[in-house]
């Protein structure tokens, strides 16, 4: 199968750089769209293994099949313009956006770190952290872009170097603070592992199929033609209005068992 052409927005950021590297590692034709500030930074400019060509965002989006956006949290709402461009182009198969420590995979739009709309029903936004993410999530849904959420939870490079101790730059060797009873579990992922699973999901045929294709596959498996009932878009929206979708998902390690990921123990060993 021909590899999708991928555009990475924010390729000089922490996760963005890993995503760009993973694209190249898995042999995808790769483009990076970065701000002028990245080129003014000598270190960031040297890290980009790309030919430097000036493109407008609309032109860049038209060049590719997949857009991966990994911008900082403070730029969350800037993604509205990008979503509009993708909708106008109409040829993007996937798109990723960075919203918070989750990674969301969209069929036409892949969101990195988006908040599911059901979060709006929970009292989790006392610091106005989730509201912009929910706004972007709702915008994607309103544009009719199908999606799948991929949760990557906590990034190792952010929390583990201090052993989750506020104000420290290295793991403590004498005294440690335990919050609560210390038994609440969290999932930690290395950014490069998140990137690898993401890029493997881009062209995974299991992730890209229409309802008609899904029905056809099932009919082949059971050796029987199903009676078909059609429900209009208006009828469907009326049926699901107000329903909160329950949480569900598939473990990325089950989908891609060939990918070796970094364990917490292995990461901590690098800090010894």
From TrEMBL:
One of its GO terms (molecular function) is oxidoreductase activity, acting on NAD(P)H, oxygen as acceptor. Residues 2-243 form the NmrA-like domain. It comes from the Eukaryota. InterPro entries: NAD(P)-bd_dom_sf, NmrA-like, NmrA-type/Isoflavone_red_sf. GO terms for biological process: lignan biosynthetic process. Pfam families: NmrA. PANTHER family: PINORESINOL REDUCTASE-RELATED, PINORESINOL-LARICIRESINOL REDUCTASE 3-RELATED. This is NmrA-like domain-containing protein. It comes from Glycine max.
């Amino acid at each position: 199968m021909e590899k999708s052409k991928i555009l990475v927005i924010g390729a000089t950021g922490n996760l963005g750089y890993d995503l760009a590297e993973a694209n190249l590692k898995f042999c995808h034709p790769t483009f990076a769209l970065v701000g002028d500030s990245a080129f003014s930074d000598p270190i960031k400019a040297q890290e980009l293994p790309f030919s430097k060509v000036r493109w407008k965002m609309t032109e860049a989006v038209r060049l590719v099949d997949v857009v991966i956006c990994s911008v900082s949290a403070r730029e969350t709402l800037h993604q509205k313009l990008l979503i509009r461009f993708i909708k106008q182009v109409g040829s993007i198969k996937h798109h990723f956006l960075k919203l918070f420590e989750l990674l969301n995979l969209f069929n036409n739009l892949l969101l990195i770190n988006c908040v599911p709309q059901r979060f709006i029903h929970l009292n989790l936004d006392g610091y106005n952290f989730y509201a912009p993410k929910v706004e972007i999530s709702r915008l994607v849904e309103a544009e009719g872009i199908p999606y799948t959420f991929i949760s990557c939870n906590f990034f190792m490079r952010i929390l583990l170097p201090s052993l989750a101790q506020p104000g420290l730059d290295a793991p403590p060797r004498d005294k440690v603070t335990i919050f609560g009873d210390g038994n609440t579990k969290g999932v930690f992922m290395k950014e490069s592992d998140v990137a690898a699973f993401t890029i493997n999901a881009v062209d995974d045929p299991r992730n890209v199929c229409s309802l008609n294709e899904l029905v056809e596959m099932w009919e082949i498996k059971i050796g029987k033609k199903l009676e078909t009932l059609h429900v209009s878009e208006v009828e469907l929206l009326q049926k699901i209005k107000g329903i909160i979708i329950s949480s569900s998902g598939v473990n990325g390690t089950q989908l891609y068992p060939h990918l070796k990921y970094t364990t917490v123990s292995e990461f901590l060993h690098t800090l010894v």
